[in-house]
Write a structure and sequence with these properties.
Residues 10-64 form the HTH cro/C1-type domain. Belongs to the short-chain fatty acyl-CoA assimilation regulator (ScfR) family. InterPro entries: Cro/C1-type_HTH, HTH_RamB, IrrE_HExxH, Lambda_DNA-bd_dom_sf, ScfR_C, TransReg_Diox_bact_type. The protein has four domains: 7-105, 434 Repressor (Amino-terminal Domain), CATH 1.10.260; 140-275, Arc Repressor Mutant, subunit A (Orthogonal Bundle), CATH 1.10.10; 310-437, Beta-Lactamase; 442-474, no CATH class. α10 runs parallel beside α11. The protein has helices at residues 7-16, 21-28, 32-39, 47-57, 70-81, 91-100, 102-126, 141-151, 157-169, 177-189, 224-239, 241-250, 259-275, 278-287, 292-299, 303-310, 356-359; strands at 192-196, 207-210, 215-219, 314-315, 318-319, 324-328, 334-339, 368-373, 379-390, 398-408, 430-431. It contains 17 helices and eleven strands. The protein has a six-stranded mixed sheet with strand order 7-6-10-9-8-11.
Length: 474
Amino acid sequence: MQKMYAGARLRTLREQRGLSQSGLAKALELSVSYINQLEHDQRPLTVPVLLRLNSRFDLDMGFFAADSDARLIADLQDVFAEDPEGAGITTAEMDDLVARVPAAARMLVGLHRRLRGATEQMERVSAGIDSGTTDSTAAMPYEDVRDYFYDRRNHIPELDTAAEELFRHNGFSIGGLDLQLTTLLRDKYGIVVVIRTDDPNSPGPKRVFDPKAGVLTLARRLSTGQRAFQLATQLAFLTQAAVIDDLIDQAETMPEHSRGLLRIGLANYFAGALILPYTPFWDAAESLRYDIEMLAAKFEVGFETVCHRLSTLQRPGKRGVPFFFVRTDRAGNISKRQSATAFHFSRVGGSCPLWVVHEAFSTPGSIRTQIAQMPDGRNYLWLARTTDEKAPGFLSPKRDFAIGLGCDLAYSEKLVYSHGLPIDDPRTAVPIGAGCKVCERTDCAQRAFPQLGRPIRVDDNSSQNIPYVPTTTV
């Protein structure tokens, strides 16, 4: 077994819990000198010490594994891939940086995000399409909010707990939750809910609240689950304003112009946690082996809502399978991505064409599965299915997406979707990558772009089957 040196992660854990070295030593029944040696990588972490740490602090099973840093390493790869001088920095060197100085690595990623935002702003100004903002360092608000949830592994415990408590305190039950929430809004807050019928050719907004009149209007086209979600979102603004304000205040690096969108994102998180309360949903997910369609039927919500909720189940003591959730359109644009895992797709150059999520459009409404392997050797189980949202009427517009949900292959036995798959045969894994521009695979015939920072070989006397052959390939 390879020795594990994790001094930086141990030091981070101690600081997060507000412990001194002597305090940690006392909690683990170890000597202070031994803790000091562990933190300075003079001793490896042993299995007995790992068991004590996991028992004492209820840690995620991957907290001390190298995989737990994979998302930060992937972000660094994006940073260095865009700079020609970064091509010489190896994955091993990035690994070492993340392991020894994780704060510096996160700072580099943050600086890169702000630089990318400034560059995009300059490009808009040059093209004469400036939005009017004077903050040239501002990134896109949706990216800021996406990073906020991504950096927190898509789990906001304050809102999760508050939602479950509100569900329990009001005696709510699964089934007909839209009617129960309507009654609560009327009886406790004096808000009347009305349903609006739209012109199919010009559908209106899903939810409109008039605070002066105390009227909340919902579109008739919404399903019962969608109505419950919109009602729960409005309830979040009414009952969780202080909690949401505190969370936004704690996000010190969040640009001012992105905070309004973050407020909506946090309210939506609360809504999802209210209509799918943590403990009942977690219990059902475990007992049904994460069968998404069964969960959707039980809780009267859609496929996408269930997938999104599954990616948030990281409560200590009741952790679900750590999933990566993604939504793409037919062009491969990723409009949603949330993760409780180390899985990562690059922001540079689109997603991998071999990924099963893109295949879902060829079999609408059917679940596709895939065992996929990333270039670093980690294997994942992926499932994907299309979903659509449309107004009634043959000529009415619709939005067509593919939803993907993935997890480390080590969790596959907990999922009904592993049934019949050759989990133990490594030859069946489809080799995918984070995105063509950062993918390290030099033998991929599907490559759409050369790897950033890698010169390609040009030979008049040879025509290869593989596009963009790098100079290092013979």
